[in-house]
């Protein structure tokens, strides 16, 4: 680009000093300016595309790292939840066994109570029937 500017300066000086100067030489120089500008633009665009690709690659890398970290977190959380569930299962099994044991104890106590109540009722019936048979002649009617 610097060479083109110096040529432009040289041709401008010639155009001012010479009456036989051909203006098409400046047009040719302007075309070279245009071509050089397009090349610079293409180079800059390629550089921008490269930088954009680097930025996209970096973003992809960050996203992959974040997803890997999230996966590790999720796996760790799953392990913790499974461990907690196993603990709760053990507690539930213990409570279930305790409940079955208590049920057996309550059933046994209830059966014993029923047996004792039946014995007591049987004893009351026997003592009542003994007392009634001796006093059956002494019955008093409230009417």
The Cα radius of gyration reads: 55 Å
Low-confidence stretches: none
Helix segment count? Answer: 2
Question: What structural category arises from helix and sheet content?
Answer: mainly alpha
Q: In which range does the helix fraction lie? A: over 70%
* Average pLDDT metric: 87
Order of helices and strands: HH
**Straight-line N-to-C gap:** 142 Å
Number of strands: 0
Mind summarizing the main beta sheet?
Answer: none
What characteristic shape results from the CA principal axes? Answer: rod-shaped
Number of domains: 1
Strand content: under 5%
What does this structure look like?
The mean pLDDT is 87. The protein is rod-shaped and about 165 Å long. It has one domain (21-125). The chain is mainly alpha-helical and 143 residues long. Helix 1 (2-17) runs antiparallel to helix 2. The chain is built from two helices and no strands.
